[in-house]
């Protein structure tokens, strides 16, 4: 009898169908009792030789059986409705929460573990709520009433029934803690195995290339064996639990039968009373037996409940406390003013759990960063690897908060906007492209569902991918494989660029968005893109400096600080990091750049 607060909270989503399911279950239990009474009367009639009484009694039994079948069908339907409601609402809440937590959470949690919680965990909660809970209510309510009925027939029978019922209900509670622990271990192992499998499948090309497939297979086999052990350990406890319940049920029924016989031979009960006593004693244990069965169905829900609760209560890295509903449609200026940021805990502004920290906790990723990306212009950010370019973009889209200083868009601090408004106003294309198993056109229209075909083509042309789309078997109606697997890396990136161009966002951020495009095309695509994005404020981080030399302004970052700001020619003239980076690029060391 395990009650988990998280599961009870989930049950509130389906209060009405659950009440109906429980009421119908009570109706089913009532039919067993009526059947027991009718059978007792029938047996008594047979014993007395009153065969004439049998037809109506047996007809009654038949009617009760039919009624039970009907009630059982309704009950299952109500329970399924309750379960479906719980599943849908819980998954909705989890998905909303995952959206709130953002990608920062998904970098710390493993995708396979989140999948297990969302799919298998929620299925377990359904079984717990729709099957176990109604049965639990019935088990708590019915046996005490039946004991009263038994006491009225033959009080001595309680001597066998009460201890057996207490043992059946309370005995397994001794194992609850152990069972809970084993359940959690089992769930953790299950989640871990799911995450390992997903990771191995997604990383199969890399594993193959590295010749690591056999090693990975061995690791997965070890994980599978660990899951097997965890399952057996859990089952062992569970079987002790079930065994104890069965023992108490069988023992109690036998004790009740013996006491019923004793009271019949001593003349304390008539034939009808004796038969009734025997049948009622058996009915006392029916809910207990059914509860044990439903427990096994709902057990997964109890194991997953902690993980579900933790996910629902997790705090996002940044809080969505802003109230500005949208970025203006005109291109805004973006300003970084004295921004410090460090990864890790402590320090910084206290607006959420993942703040930039003070320098006492280690090196800052950004320190005193100040510059302006002017409205409607293109600003490039360059610097060696680890200089802080991606961190800067993460602060702009509020995936983290500055420890000191501020980032403003159109004069308002980024925290003043709602997260949805801020992110809708900034179209980001990064190195990692998300494409979905859908047509090319559907993938493009994610950014703007109402875009017409002409707009799709214009965006695709600007991103340098139109000709390749047109050459696909069904052109824009070609279905892409999962994650765009049927395209090359460069094609995927250019599709993502076309998608960003389609969006109405007044700010366009290209974070190494052309890294998979060959060098010859990169500069041309970047130029055409920026032409197409004309009128928007563009921030560009690019690996190869040829791609950003035409930017209106170039901000040079080095070790988290702004080293210089200027045009390509100005920066070349002044020497420094930029000139060194360009020189390195020209001597074939371009990969060190940006
Ligand atoms: N999630 C993180 N946790 C801890 N440190 C991080 C994290 N992300 C980045 N860093 C550190 O912050 C610093 C700046 O990283 P950032 O990714 O912003 O650099 P970058 O200029 O974009 O580098 P690259 O050109 O290689 O992508 C680096 O020292 C990096 O190791």
UniProtKB/TrEMBL annotation:
Record-annotated ABC transporter domain positions: 334-584
SUPFAM superfamilies the record matches: ABC transporter transmembrane region (SSF90123), P-loop containing nucleoside triphosphate hydrolases (SSF52540)
Domain of life, source organism: Bacteria
Domain ABC transmembrane type-1 residue range list: 19-300
PROSITE patterns linked: ABC_TM1F, ABC_TRANSPORTER_1, ABC_TRANSPORTER_2
InterPro entries with a match to the protein in the record: AAA+_ATPase, ABC1_TM_dom, ABC1_TM_sf, ABC_transporter-like_ATP-bd, ABC_transporter-like_CS, P-loop_NTPase, Type_1_exporter
Record keywords: ATP-binding, Membrane, Nucleotide-binding, Transmembrane, Transmembrane helix
MF-aspect GO terms: ATP binding
Transmembrane stretches, start-end: 52-71, 132-150
Membrane topology: Multi-pass membrane protein
Protein name stated in the entry: ATP-binding cassette domain-containing protein
């Amino acid at each position: 009898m395990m009650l988990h607060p998280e599961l009870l909270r989930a049950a509130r989503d389906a209060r009405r169908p659950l009440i109906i399911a429980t009421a119908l279950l009570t109706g089913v239990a009532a039919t067993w009792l009526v059947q027991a009474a009718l059978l007792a009367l029938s047996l008594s009639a047979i014993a007395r030789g009153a065969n004439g009484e049998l037809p109506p009694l047996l007809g009654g039994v038949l009617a009760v059986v039919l009624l039970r079948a009907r009630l059982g069908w309704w009950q299952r339907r109500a329970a399924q409705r309750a379960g479906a409601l719980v599943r849908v609402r819980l998954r909705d809440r989890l998905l909303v929460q995952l959206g709130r937590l953002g990608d920062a959470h998904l970098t710390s949690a493993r995708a396979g573990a989140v999948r297990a919680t969302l799919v298998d965990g929620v299925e377990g909660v359904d079984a717990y709520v729709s099957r176990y809970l109604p049965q639990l209510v019935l088990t708590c309510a019915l046996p005490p009433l039946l004991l009263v009925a038994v006491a009225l027939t033959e009080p001595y029978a309680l001597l066998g029934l009460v201890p057996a019922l207490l043992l059946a209900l309370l005995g397994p509670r001794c194992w609850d803690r152990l069972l809970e622990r084993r359940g959690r271990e089992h769930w953790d192992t299950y989640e871990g195995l799911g995450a390992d499998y997903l990771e191995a499948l997604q990383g199969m090309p890399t594993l193959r290339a590295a010749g690591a497939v056999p090693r990975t297979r061995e690791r997965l086999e070890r994980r599978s064996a660990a899951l097997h052990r965890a399952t057996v350990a859990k089952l062992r406890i569970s079987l002790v639990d079930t065994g104890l319940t069965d023992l108490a049920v069988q023992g109690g029924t036998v004790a009740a039968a013996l006491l019923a016989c004793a009271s019949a031979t001593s003349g304390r009960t008539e034939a009808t009373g004796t038969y009734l006593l025997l049948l009622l004693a058996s009915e006392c244990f029916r809910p207990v037996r059914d509860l044990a069965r439903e427990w096994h169905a709902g057990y997964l829900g109890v194991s997953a409940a902690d993980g579900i609760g933790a996910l629902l209560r997790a705090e996002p890295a940044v809080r969505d406390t802003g109230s500005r509903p949208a970025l203006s449609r005109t291109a805004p200026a973006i300003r970084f003013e004295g921004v410090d940021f460090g990864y890790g805990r402590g320090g910084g502004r206290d607006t959420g759990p993942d703040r930039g920290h003070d320098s006492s906790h280690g090196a800052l990723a950004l320190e005193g960063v100040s510059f302006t990306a002017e409205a409607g212009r293109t600003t490039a950010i360059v610097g060696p690897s680890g200089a802080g370019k991606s961190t800067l973009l993460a602060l702009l889209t509020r995936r983290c908060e500055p420890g000191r200083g501020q980032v403003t868009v159109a004069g308002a601090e980024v925290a003043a906007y709602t997260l949805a408004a801020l992110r809708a106003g900034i179209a980001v294309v990064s190195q990692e492209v998300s494409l979905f198993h859908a047509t090319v056109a559907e993938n493009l229209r994610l950014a703007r569902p109402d875009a017409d075909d002409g707009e799709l083509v214009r965006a695709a042309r600007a991103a340098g991918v139109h000709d390749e789309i047109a050459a696909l078997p069904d052109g824009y109606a070609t279905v892409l494989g999962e994650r765009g697997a049927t395209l090359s890396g460069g094609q995927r990136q250019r599709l993502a660029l076309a998608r960003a161009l389609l969006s109405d966002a007044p700010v366009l951020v290209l974070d190494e968005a052309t890294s998979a495009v060959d060098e010859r095309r990169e500069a041309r695509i970047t130029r055409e893109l920026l032409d197409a994005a004309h009128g928007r404020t563009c921030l560009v981080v690019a690996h190869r400096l040829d791609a950003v030399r035409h930017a209106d302004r170039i901000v040079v970052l080095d070790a988290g600080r702004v080293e210089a700001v200027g045009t390509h020619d100005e920066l070349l003239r002044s020497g420094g990091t930029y000139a060194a980076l360009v020189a390195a690029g020209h001597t074939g060391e371009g990969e060190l750049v940006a």
